Amino acid sequence: MSDDVKARMIRETARALARKGLQRASFSQILEASGAPRGSLYHHFPGGKRELVLKGVAAAGEHALAGLARLEGRPASQVAAGFIDLWRQLLLASDFNAGCAVVAVTVAAEAPSELAAAAAVFAAWRARLAEALERGGIAAPAAKTLAATLLAACEGAVALARAERSLAPFDLVAAELIAWARAAEN
Predict the structure, then answer these.
(1) Is 108 a member of any domain?
(2) Worst-scoring range by mean pLDDT, 11-15, 73-77, 144-148?
């Protein structure tokens, strides 16, 4: 039971970061949304809010890595399309109210540990994406470049889509990225 509460708190933290950012994430709302009692924060996370934020960033990272794992073994253009679709689904499921929890922490990091956690997640995403692209038919150096470009372009496209409350700018970027991946396939 205690592990369930802790897992819910972490999941709700990742959601709050994606929707509200680091500065506006309300820990009382996280407790309420997770169904956790008031004293749960320091019981489960002795390091307090900062520890919970770090766990939320890690959870967001693992969620995306799980999505990438489902793309393994596909042609590179399908890997790119699948990665892009992870972001599209986030936008649609949140009615354009959520972005990337990791970016939210990156732009507002209050401690080196928060920035380091975000950097580790981004590095893991790029590495896993590059591996999948390489297995999908793109040479290693190009796969690394495309992985970094996919990540950076998707993050920017998510920001545009959220601001405009429309998939139009997102889909323009997506089409270019998929075409690039298709052209780079062996």
Answers:
(1) yes
(2) 11-15
